[in-house]
Amino acid sequence: MKDFLTQLKEQHAEFGNHYQKYLQTVQRNLDSLIQRLEERKRRDAVHILHPTYDFGTQLAIVASSGNNRQEKLNFVNTFFSLQFLLMNRQAVDHLRMGVIASGANKFSVYKKFMIDAGNNFRMLTTHYINQLLNLFVDETSCPEFVILGVGTKADQDDIDVGIIDSGTRNRREFNRAISQISQEMLKSAITFHFHLSEHIGGQYYSASVDEYKKALKHQIGDYVIINEMLSGAVITGNKQLFEEYQKEIIEKYFYHPNRDNKHHEAYLRGILGDVNSLLARPISSNHINFKEDNLRIIKNIICAQKTVFDVDKVNAWQILDDLRKKDAKRFREYGDLERSLTFSEVFRYLYQLLVTQDEEVELDIASFKNIRRVARTMGYTDLGKCHAEEHLLVHYYEHIQNVRNIVPTLLKDLKAHLEDNSIFVSILDPDYGANIAQDFLTKFKFFRGTSFWDDILGDFESEALLNRFISDLDAFPPAKRKKLINGYIEWVRYDLYSSIKFLTTLGRTKIGHTLFVDLNKQLLEMLEEMPDVVRKMSYVFNRFPHLINNYLSLNDDKTLELYLKLLETRIYEKEIAAIIDNLKSLIDIHLSSSVFYKRFFLRITERYPEAIQAIKNPELLREFGDGIYSDVQSMPTSKEKIEKLGDYYDFEMMRVGLRTLSGTTADEINTEYTEFSDRYIRTLFDICRQEIDTQYAKRIITDDLLAIFAAGGHAREQAYDDDYDIIVLLNSDNQEVLSYCNKIISKMNSEIIKRSTIPHHRFADYFGRYVILLKEVERLLSEERTDIFIEKSQILGARLVVGSHRFEKDFFDRVIRPYILDQKDEYIRQMSEEISSRHKAAGAQRTIIEDNIKEGVGGLRDLEMILLIIKAECGIMQPVNSKIFIEIAAKQEELREDLLRLSTGFNFLNNLRNSYRLTVGATDMIMSAMLNTAAHIMRYQNGKQLYDEFNKTRGEVTHAIANILDKLKCD
Amino acid sequence: MGFRYEFRLSGSGGQGLILAGKILAEAAAIYDGKNATQSQSYGPEARGGSSRSEVIVSDEEIDYPKAVNIDLLLCFTQEACDKYHQDVKEMGILLVDESYVTKIPKGKYKVYSVPITETAETKVGKALVANIVAIGIITQVTGVISKEAVEAAILSRVPKGTEDLNLKAFNTGIEMAQQFK
């Protein structure tokens, strides 16, 4: 049979390496302990081989069996280590049995396990500490004291304690004794972690109530410590002292109606700021961190609520039980939080027991083996192809998401609580009797270092308050004003988010702009000096991308460039680096994009801020856009449908624009643009028609006799036109149908214009209405006018967007063939003459249109005209775009070289036009000095090189067009 | 008067500095037979999630375990360096990870600016063991705790299956420090 020590080692072989320390302690002293117990005939009074249920009594027997203090100490450490090992072994065995027996509902088992583990550990450590105190502390000469357990209390990496003393006699000796205890524990057993006194008072291990009072009087200080204080429970010592401490110190942090709640408010502003920061922290794909991913968020938020609802419990599960009763409207939220708390705690506890006492777990192969052991202990098994450890991790991430879903609701409640009870409420009133700017800052001093100001920042959105604040600030002489501004900018040091939010509120108002500029300048100066600024920026951007987006939109190019420079730091954490990369791309968009594009970008990112995080992920954006479109029909009213459809258009415009800015060719861009733009028009037509039907209270039958054709740029599938040329045709004389169709188109117009695109109805000025009858077009084209080729070009270039193929055929048979194709010689002659006369006119006013990408010689207009000529000549019905050049080039050997040159030129000019529109403005005038960004997108070295290419291309286009026209004449 | 050496390891949460502190303290107390204390504190997340671990090693009983006259300060963030450099005693050591600390404050101490995280990533294969690389450097530079004791303490603290990786990190730190002049 194996001896006891061998059995003990084997029983604990699955525990982490750190348990070796306890085994070594047992191995070192167990024989002597047994020998002494036997000498004193107390061997049978002490459990050596299995866990004891009377640890206090047995530990006292063990302590008393030593011959001197060192031996007593060795025995106490040994018995503690032994019982600690056996207790954990038993707990793990119980848990394993419990999860097997519980079936699907493991949470009650987990919860019981954690509560029992906490109770057992506290029981063990309380007696252990008492014995150590007996050995080291002379109670007759030491001050009154109480040792509090703080923190989670189930943690086994150390014993979190706070020691309060009476501040009288021999404090130094007492602290010396605690120091000795602490050093002994480090060697043989578990270590102390002195939470409170590290920061308070002159002694290291203990602090008096007066020292607490003094330290917390003028400033909130470290609110993490206050969190620990709020969770304090007596381990051993003078209970009266604890009561005094509770009354004099702890009570201040609880909410008391109709009393001064400054300390309570400051604690909330600190701890909730911490929650906000933790929520802003990106979730890593490489590792998990029990505390930061979940536990600190849960504990901070419930501790904050505990002070609001006057809950005196200190154990997280008990606090949640009380909160469910006292804040019943959030019953469900607290229940969900409890599940995440329980899951995360048990996972962490077992990981620290079985693997290592670390909060952070790298997700690599070695860790997966270790996590698997934890998963199996928690009752997870391999399911199909999903391994137990993967299943556990999936649940872990689900709980992270669960907490992130619930906590904002509780934060909202706490924000409302602050709005009602803040000491700033009386100051932040436009009718306040003194200087708001100065008094706010004075009161703010106590709150320095806290970072939850959402309630106050919300107040500043009131124009009246903002006006009053600014005028109060401006009332001071410049030097004093500057000093106050410096005071405000100090905020940044602790709270970048609130500072940026305040600045954005200022910058978006006319009255706040001057102050915005002043503060923003100082913000930048401070950021340049601030350590770890990149990480801080990444957190704010990760949680509040729309805020950063709005803030960036208020900055000039120089400032944006400074931000880009600031972010040029190597970041090792992949998730932070990815966020910063995204932020830099966002700054690039603000820096490089035209007002024309930014208008769409800001409009849609305001409505869908989540898109900002995906600006570098075109596939995700595409799915997002499709999602918005699929939502359109599920909207309950026409108005909402139209609004959603507008969102779809803007979103797609933003998405396709991003693709242009990243260098996608015009060919691809124009196709994508046309797809969403046509989809928009077709859907808009359907919705507007339904709405008019509702107004008519009946459906007017149009018998496929109505059609909408895109003309101009949209017909040519050209992106980013700022107008929409449109031809609406009706093949019927019925006046009711005509009126009905006009109403639909009128409604469509008022929506299209909201997309920053002006609809131009071709031929509407001839007939005084949007909808033109087919016979009216026939009549118009039969007129003997020298400029009729212009109308013919509109018709020939038109592309059906809404309507039937039957209508398209009628249109071809009645209009295109008889009036254009059958008269093509005349049409081509007129078009050729137009090209020549345009070139002559361009020569006369060279400086005006020379750099016009559309109207200049060899520009897009020339190309469109030659395309229409080819279309007429060859009788092609497809849309006017570069594919025609390729198609005809394949058939006509004689024209091939020139057509291919035109195709290349057409693509280049379209690329340039698109890039220019998105980086400079929606204008056709190309300014060489503004071409650098477009050059970067189009992969030219610089603007000059691109401009040279622009000129060269137009020369080649002009030459090729002349050649083609000559050849057509010969034919 | 007895020998007393004060270490402060500072940076932000997740950089493994608390664990590093525990390893140094246990190495000194359990495996080298010295007296040691270790304390730790986490700052609020909103202030950058600062993390600090202090270890005091002495051949006598340690009455006052607060590090006030620091012999070696390790900084893994600029913020920590700016905050604590004044506490380093004259002729003490300021050891910084140059990946994170770019501005070295002036003082009457010896400065070692070393690519700790970068080395952990490139030579050892994991940035996560930067804390153990740092322990290697500290062990070699100070000579206060024996290499064997630190090795034993590392092995008793790291997860099963990662022992070789951590020892490699530790030895890399030792080798780095051997190159210091």
Automatic annotation (TrEMBL), chain A:
Highest taxon, organism lineage: Bacteria
Span of domain PII-uridylyltransferase/Glutamine-synthetase adenylyltransferase: 306-409, 828-964
A molecular-function term among this protein's GO annotations: [protein-PII] uridylyltransferase activity
One Pfam family matching this protein: GlnD_UR_UTase
UniProt keyword annotation of Magnesium present: yes
Record keywords: Hydrolase, Magnesium, Multifunctional enzyme, Nucleotidyltransferase, Transferase
Residues spanning the signal sequence: none
InterPro entries: NT_sf, PII_UdlTrfase/GS_AdlTrfase, UTase/UR
Record protein name field: PII-uridylyltransferase/Glutamine-synthetase adenylyltransferase domain-containing protein
From TrEMBL, chain B:
Keywords from the named record: Oxidoreductase
Domain Pyruvate/ketoisovalerate oxidoreductase catalytic: residue ranges: 13-175
InterPro entries for the chain: 2-oxoglutarate_synth_KorC, Pyrv/ketoisovalerate_OxRed_cat, Pyrv_flavodox_OxRed_cen
Keyword field contains Oxidoreductase: yes
Superkingdom classification of source: Bacteria
EC assignment: 1.2.7.3
Catalytic EC class: oxidoreductase
Chain segments annotated as coiled-coil in the UniProt record: none
Gene3D superfamilies tied to this protein: Pyruvate-ferredoxin oxidoreductase, PFOR, domain III
Keyword Oxidoreductase appears in the UniProt entry: yes
Pfam families linked to this entry: POR
Gene Ontology molecular functions: 2-oxoglutarate synthase activity
PANTHER family given in the database record: 2-OXOGLUTARATE SYNTHASE SUBUNIT KORC
Protein name stated in the entry: 2-oxoglutarate ferredoxin oxidoreductase subunit gamma
